[in-house]
Amino acid sequence: AAMSKRRQQQQLLDSLTRSAKHFNKGEVECLVKLFNRLAAEPSNHFVNVGLDRNVFKDVMHRTFGMTDDVILDRVFRTFDKDNNNCISAVEWVEGLSVFLRGTLEEKIKYCFQVYDLNGDGYISRDEMFQLLKYCLPKQPSEEDTDEGIKDLVDIALKKMANHDGKISFMDFETTVRDDYLLLEAFGPCLPDIK
C-alpha cells in the first residue's frame, strides 16, 4: 500500500511538472507538500482531500496580502476548475503556475474569469459596479461613492467596450495588450511584484 501511494505521488508530480509548465519539478514538489500540509489543517472542511474556501482565502491573504472578499471569492472560483468547492492538488499547482508566473495571455484570461462574475463571457456594467464598489475606500456619504463608481464604470466602458455596454474577452484582451496597467482594472487579483 505504501509503495502504491508513493507511485501515485510520483505520477502526480510528473503530471504536474508537465501541466504546470511555469514550475520545475522541485518547485512542484514543494507546492504539493505545502498543499498536503494545508489540506490536513483541522479547520479545513475537506481534510486531506483539498482546500476549502476559507483555508484558500487565508493563504491568499497571508501570503499575497489579498484582502478583498469579492475578489478572493472569484480567485477561489477561478482556481476551482471543476466547481466542487474544493481546490485539489492539481488545481492548486496549475492555478499558482498562472497566478505567479503566467504569460500575459494566461493572465489576461485569468483576470477576465475573475471579473466575469456570472460566467457568461462578458463583464457587464453591473459586474464592474460590484467589483469596484468593494475596491474603493468608503466616502463620508455612501451616495458619493456610488456616483464615483458609476463614473468609473462609464470610463471603463468607453475605454474597453464595443459600444454594447459590456466587455467581451476580446475587448478586454485588446485593451490590456494596448495598456498593461488595465489588466487589474476591476480589482487586484494577481500578486504584486514582491
UniProtKB/TrEMBL annotation:
Keywords recorded for this protein, A-Z: Calcium, Metal-binding, Repeat
The UniProt record lists the keyword Nucleotidyltransferase: no
Residue ranges occupied by any EF-hand domain in the UniProt entry: 67-102, 103-138
Claim: Repeat is one of the keywords in the record: yes
A molecular function (GO) term: calcium ion binding
Protein name: EFCB1 protein
Species annotation: Oreotrochilus melanogaster
Phylogenetic placement of the source organism: Eukaryota, Metazoa, Chordata, Craniata, Vertebrata
Gene: Efcab1
